[in-house]
Amino acid sequence: MFMTRRNLLKGMASLAVMPMVVHPRFGDASGSPEVLEPMFGRVQLLPDSYPATEVWGYGGKVPGPEIRVAQGSRIHRRLVNSLAEPTSVHWHGIHIDNRMDGVPGLTQEAVSPGSSFEYDFEVPDAGTYWYHSHARSTEQVARGLYGALIVEEPTAPEIDREETLILDDWLLQENGQLSPDFMSRHDRSHAGRNGNFITTNGQSDFILPARQHERFRLRLINAANARIFPLALVGLQGWTMALDGMPLETPEPVVDMFFLAPAQRADLIVDVTAEPGDTAYLARFENKQAHAQISIPVKGVASSTLRPAPRALPSNSQQVPSRLSESVKVRLVMEGGAMGRMRHAILDGERISFRRLAQANQFWAFNGTVGQTEKPLVDVARGETVRLVIENDTVFPHGMHLHGQHFCEIDGNERTGPMRDTLLIFRGETREIAFVADNPGNWLFHCHTLSHQDSGMKTWIRVRS
Ligand code: C2O
Ligand code: CU
């Protein structure tokens, strides 16, 4: 086994650590849009003794530029495609005008090499979002085509510092380059493309020096193709303030390990409680061992006491579904994958065996059909409430993402949980979500394990205007 994390850590003691530099770019409401250019680039992911890794990034960088705007303003970007293949940008989690959602074949044509497309839309809700390629995303996102999209509240919470932290993993070969097997049968039929090298904002050893009792806002974004990050706070006292951009009514103390599935975000407020001279961590669990996702060496004291618990973030415009009894009810059964029970499914209108599906490199079905159907899973008028029961009849976890609107989970007592745009559903689980279909258009609903999305786990909903 090449490159275990521990080997790398040994070699990294002398690695210089750069402070993170954020370059906020404010949207230009008038005049010509800024350019967002997906292109080839080289980044030093591995320690200096290794070659730089060839990536595709916005502006050739990974992550791409952080886009940061005020709630209610517009984002205007001209996508100029400098890749050798078509691409598009999806603005994940934004309640966006459907024409700007960036899904080739559903909301726009993919943008061919050398061409451009103007994205211009309003951002109605504050929160932590991200943007990423939605064309051949299994490869394009794995190569680095993503960035953070931050929408600021009109009144920000009181903090000392804020950090956007994009977690990702990379499947690297010994020469430091990405494994080119993006269509791997194994990854598609199992847990997706998982990397062997983990980074935060493109750095493997992310260090955030701090003082005791300093208060941070951490905006966590999981940009990985498939990795579910099990995370915990060490030497930090924290609260979950928002999930997938949407504020919790009451900040929730972080006491345990929590999961961040692909595409999910969590906004935390954390106070540094570790003693000066110690190190606090955002820890990641792997094989029952804790690893440093972020190290926070503590030097000095910011104040002698801890602050009171933070107040909730101001609420957004999204409606929590309230008319649950008058809703349209839909069921979604997820089947397939390795070690699953699926024997047949419909592919391109024909019912075929699992063996033949595997030959076509397709492995998953929603309600018995592989991939996007001509008819939407849900077809409703604007304003209707939809209840969706999702059964995971596979042996893998899936993070299901709905475009265009957030949803709530509903528990057995008809209580609604936090609003989310991506829900992690473990093997064998049945979960129910509800949403007010208030954003007209055609919206994708898919597993954000990108290899799964590409091998069957994809459907869509229609909201008629
Ligand atoms: Cu973040 Cu359809 O994607
Ligand atoms: Cu999946």
Structure in a nutshell:
By secondary structure, the protein is mainly beta. 6% of the residues lie in helices and 44% in strands.
Structural class: mainly beta
- The low-pLDDT segments are 1-29
The CATH homologous superfamily of the domain at 324-464 is named Cupredoxins -  blue copper proteins
Bound molecules: CU-O-CU linkage, copper (II) ion
The CATH topology of the domain at 324-464, please?
A: Immunoglobulin-like
- Measure the end-to-end span: 55 Å
Shape: globular
CATH class of the domain at 324-464: Mainly Beta
Instruction: Report the β-strand fraction as a percent range.
Output: 35-45%
Tally the helices: what do you get? 5
Spatial strand sequence of the major β-sheet: 11-10-14-19-16-17
Radius of gyration: 22 Å
- Average pLDDT works out at 93
CATH architecture of the domain at 324-464: Sandwich
How would you classify the quaternary structure?
A: single chain
Count of β-strands: 34
The helical percent reads under 10%
Main sheet overview:
6 strands, mixed
Which characteristics define this entry?
44% strand; 6-stranded mixed beta sheet; binds copper (II) ion; mainly beta; single chain; 5 helices; 465 residues; binds CU-O-CU linkage; Immunoglobulin-like; disordered N terminus; 34 strands
